[in-house]
Backbone:
């Protein structure tokens, strides 16, 4: 179609799904247009995934876009159809010239037209015009017409120049009737048409078997996509829930850290307050003792005997020292035992976390979609001739994917690269796993319980 100086190609109005001219065209949000029925059926197949993609640019949409008829594009397509039909009617039949890969008419002179039929008797190809005598004249009634082909000479016996109409099962080749009395005498032969029908039936059976396999594999692929979608959704939900659990654990540890810090400060304040009160009492007693000592010293240095004797009679006995509580005289008094208890708590927590994390990692590794193949499992529709291919397929499935072969993994974290030394494990009386290094510390703490 050529209008307003613009040349359009028919392929521009084809649907990329059905490869035909657009019918009831609709345009999706990414800008591509399709037949209304084609894009609806295409999206119906992915409806269970909840994600709808464009067949051309693969852009995804969620939720499913609503579709509306593209009125302008529909009008252009209708005009294109009408104009294309008019151009086809205006093109004469004798102007169907042969292109580079087409079979040329053997009768045409000058520029040859495209051949539509080949005659196996005449060994020539004809266009629409020159093939008409084969349909109209009784002379050509027994001639056999086939679709135009460039391999006419291959249908003729090179030795006898006759049509290859017989198939020899012994030598597995096509021969002519004269070959039956020559080098193919006594061989197992059959008409070529009968052999073709037999082969066609075999091909039909193979095609049916192939279709059954395709349907089975499509079902497997659909189940696998559904499993991937379900596992992805479960992984996302589990990740969020585990994040919440670990956040709560971190908040609990932070609270315990705050409580320990406040406990140490409160104990420090209480003990120092008691010590300061006792120190004040001791200093007061020292002051009274010093005052009494000064009075005695002054009295001992007086020269007035009368005053000295009178003062001695009125002299009060020295104050008696009060009984003091026990005082720790260790100059290295510290909160060291508290730090030891904190360290023990850290080790115990690490052991509990280690055993718990091993269980978590094992549970994570148990979640699989593609497991090892069952030995001897094959499709029910496998043909006898497909044994080798089925065996090769099984051998291919047995091979583990890269990175999951027989390389060692860390039992603490199977998702990390293995270290040079793998620790061994033992079970504590509480059912948690302990490493070889932590087991001895655990036994020592159990043999020497903490003081309350």
Residues:
């Amino acid at each position: 179609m050529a209008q307003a100086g613009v040349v359009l190609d028919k392929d521009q109005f084809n649907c990329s799904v059905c490869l035909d001219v657009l019918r009831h065209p609709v345009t999706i949000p990414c800008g591509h247009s399709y037949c209304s029925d084609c894009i609806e059926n295409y999206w119906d197949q992915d409806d269970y995934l909840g994600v709808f993609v464009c067949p051309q640019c693969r852009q995804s949409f969620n939720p499913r876009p609503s579709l509306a008829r593209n009125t302008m594009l529909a009008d252009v397509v209708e005009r294109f159809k009408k104009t294309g039909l008019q151009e086809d009617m205006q093109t004469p039949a004798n102007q169907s010239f042969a292109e580079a890969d087409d079979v040329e008419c053997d009768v045409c002179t000058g520029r040859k037209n495209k051949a539509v039929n080949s005659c196996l008797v005449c060994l020539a190809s004809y266009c629409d015009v020159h093939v008409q005598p084969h349909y109209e004249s009784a002379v050509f009634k027994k001639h056999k017409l086939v679709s135009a082909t460039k391999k006419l000479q291959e249908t003729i016996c090179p030795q006898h120049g006759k049509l290859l109409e017989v198939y020899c099962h012994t030598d597995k080749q096509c021969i002519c009737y004269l070959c039956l009395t020559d080098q193919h005498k006594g061989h197992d032969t059959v008409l070529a048409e009968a052999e073709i029908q037999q082969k066609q039936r075999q091909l039909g059976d193979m095609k049916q078997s192939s279709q059954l396999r395709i349907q089975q594999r499509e079902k497997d692929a659909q189940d696998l996509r559904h499993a991937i979608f379900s596992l992805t959704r479960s992984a996302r939900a589990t990740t969020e829930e585990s994040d919440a659990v670990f956040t709560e654990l971190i908040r609990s540890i932070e609270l315990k850290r705050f409580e320990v810090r406040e406990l140490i400060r409160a104990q420090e304040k209480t003990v120092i307050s008691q010590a300061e009160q006792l120190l004040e009492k001791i200093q007061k007693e020292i002051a009274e003792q010093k005052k009494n000592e000064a009075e005695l010293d002054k009295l001992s240095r007086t020269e007035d005997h009368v005053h000295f004797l009178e003062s001695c009679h009125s002299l009060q006995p020295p104050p008696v020292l009060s009984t003091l509580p026990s005082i720790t005289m260790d100059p290295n008094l510290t909160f060291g035992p508290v730090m030891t208890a904190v360290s023990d708590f850290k080790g115990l927590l690490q052991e509990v976390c280690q055993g718990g994390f091993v269980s978590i990692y094992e549970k994570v590794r148990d979640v699989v979609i593609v497991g090892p193949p069952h030995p001897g499992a094959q499709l029910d529709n496998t043909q006898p001739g497909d044994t080798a291919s089925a065996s090769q397929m099984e051998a291919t499935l047995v091979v583990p994917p890269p990175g999951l072969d027989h390389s060692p993994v860390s039992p603490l974290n199977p998702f990390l690269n293995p270290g040079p030394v793998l620790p061994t494990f033992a079970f504590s009386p509480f059912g948690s796993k302990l490493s070889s290094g932590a087991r001895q510390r655990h036994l020592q703490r159990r043999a020497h319980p903490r003081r309350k």
Summary: Residues 203 and 290 are 126 Å apart (CA to CA). Residues 192-300 form the longest helix (109 residues).
